[in-house]
Amino acid sequence: MELTALKQSEVQVSAEDSRRMWELSVRAAALPAASTPQLADMLLDIPAGVRDPLVSFAEGTSHTGYLLLRGLEVGDLPPTPTGHDSHLLDGHGTSGAMALFADLVGSLIGYQDEKDGALIHDVHPVRGEETRIENSGSVAFDFHTENVHHPLRPDFLGLLCLRQDHDGVAATRVASVREAELLLTEEQRRVLRSPRFQSAYPTSFARNIPGPRPTAGPHPVLFGREGQSFMRFNSHNTTAADAEGTAALEALSAALETVCRDIVLDRGDLVLVDNHIAAHGRSSFTPRYDGADRWLRRCYSLRSTPRWAEHMMHGQRVVPELAQISGVF
User: Fold this and answer.
1) Which strands form 197-200's sheet, in the order they lie side by side?
2) What letters, b where the CB count within 10 A reaches 16 and e where it falls short, cover 244-277?
3) Who contacts 9 (Cβ-Cβ below 8 Å, separation ≥6)?
4) What are the pLDDT digits (tens) for 73-87?
């Protein structure tokens, strides 16, 4: 079963499919504000060797919770930026690639509260932020589902590697709840399915919020049918108010560690994570700030955005601020 799951989770893209995908990506990058319908023709033209695994993965039946595509083209690149908001790759083919991948499995989205609604995020170390538990840090980043606090959490997270770290050791860590829950006791699963947990806003959403970070909850950590569970969990931000809940969280963290797969991404590798099935993290690495540091691009995809949320959006594809939708769910 392990070998079968891995085979279904990893795809080597052919040279011809990579070339064709890059042509489409460059075309899509020239339409930065395009809606999903405006990209429809390009989505239909994505080579079957790329499209079919992605469409299958989007059905949400993956046991591992991730899909890895290797061998994609990423084009010519400038030095890795060292600060925030560089905009170095505005209009770059990788922006178009991320939009196409996200729209094939759902719809590319951003969050108004995070990075001013940016749709594509650059993930690289920033000097002075090494210990931050977010994409500008370089310390280990433990297991979490993305935007755990949010009522409209992304269904999928995409990470495209532009440049590996100098030592080739930085791993994207992926752990499936559908594998981890098999290591939990019936009582631990019962506790994790009860709505007794709180999740603090991630630091990327709370940079401009004075005082303590707000929390969301109470909510369950596990939900869905037994054997086909989904997860809402951040090892850094999700807490319980009682000892029983805290012990169950610790058991879940240990189980995720046991089933974790460490994926060392190289240039042209894309990992797509089902944000409700798999938690992800990052191992530590040592940045040098010499223009050749690790550099990924990140995107979010949402299968369905409520109509009311679409009408509240100030920018196309950008989920409204939490202050505006707080209490809706």
Assistant:
1) 215-219, 197-200, 238-240
2) ebeebbebbbebbeebbbebebebbbbbbbbbbb
3) 62, 64, 66, 67, 68
4) 999 999 999 888 778
